[in-house]
Amino acid sequence: MESYPIEIIVKRKWVRVLALDSNGKTIAVRGKWIKVAYIHDEWWLDTELDDPEACVKKLKEQRSPGLRADIFTFSQKLPGSLPQYGYAQEWDSVAAVRTTSFKDWWEKLPQESRKNVRRSQKRGVEIRIKPFDDDLIKGIIGVNNDSPTRQGGPNVHYGKSFDQVKRDYSAFLDRSDFICASLGGELIGFLKLVYRGEVAAILNLTTKASHNDKRPANSLIAKAVELCETKGVSYLTYGLFNYGNKRDSPLREFKSRNGFEEILTPRFYVPLTTWGMLTMKVKLHRGLLGILPHRVITLAVNARTKWYSIKHFISRCSSVLERPNRIRQTERSTPPAGSKL
How far apart are CA 38 and CA 25, in angstroms? Predict the structure, then answer.
């Protein structure tokens, strides 16, 4: 496996890192204190790692600082849930819904969720599949710039340029659909669906908070399930159902209301160094969400949400207070009547 540079997004910015190729899979390394080798874009690939032992062997031989790792991790994708390897394993909590029958999915939804889809239609929301062109990119910019915060934290796509947005959403275009929600010609939400064999994965689902009363997200999910049935796709996934010990959240509640359930798939962890073996024994490889109790995570999330709400409020107040000063400066720059200037 030869090493080569790739670009990944870290804290809203594209950065270049070294990677390895393993039979068409890109292996990169993340982390500072615990360096973990992982399959780049694993969630969106249509096949699994076919020779993990060869990959483990090559990673152990690495001498380059950018490719030396303590742990290697990889997973199996739906629908197979029986572990195929003898490595140490844990379970990924995947949010998924069976999509072989739109009717079955629809009839199992809570009554309120079905009402939300109908409410969206009655309020004029149109759902269409659109090509990824300049018009769609401009619409996505408008959706992303609707609010500087999202799900209680900073909106990482807020304020990005046309070229940045085009780059961010250009992955897997050969096997993707952009499902768009429009109101009177204005894009108010979009869902990017990536096809992975018999599984389709939601890569992006974003709506304008200012149009939440129209329930565009519910209509976008319904269209995604309908598309999956039409294309013969068995499962629709939407990230994880549970994130470590974080059990309750508005996002999880939204997934449940739209028919998503937890399906467990095996994730394997292979220690590559003594440090990696020690960190696995004390569960540090799970990260904070996998170590901290649910109550502590909830307190931290609520504190973060309040902090960003206060920060956003202060920012808005500052902009309002600055406005009269700008007006006064403009008025002073206008020469008075009879001035020779």
Answer: 10
> What's the half-sphere exposure (Cβ side, CA atoms, 13 Å) at 116?
20
Q: Which residue is it, tokens 């870290």?
A: 10
Give Cα 299 distance to the centre of its chain.
Answer: 23
Which 3-state string (H, E, C) describes 201-239? EEEEEEECHHHHHHCHHHHHHHHHHHHHHHHCCCEEEEE
Q: b/e map of 107-119 (b: 16 or more CB within 10 Å)?
A: eebeeebeebbeb
Report helix angle 216-231 to 111-122, nearest 10: 100
Contact between 203 and 172 under an 8 Å Cβ cutoff? The reply is yes
- pLDDT mean over 215-244: 95
121, 306 Cβ separation under 8 angstroms: no
Q: Which residues contact 13 (CB under 8 A, 6 or more apart)?
A: none
This prediction has a pTM of 0.84
Which domains, and CATH codes, for the chain? 3-90+266-297 (no CATH), 96-262 (3.40.630.30)
Query: Are the C-beta atoms of residues 80 and 47 closer than 8 Å to each other?
Result: no
Q: How high is the pLDDT of residue 318? A: 59
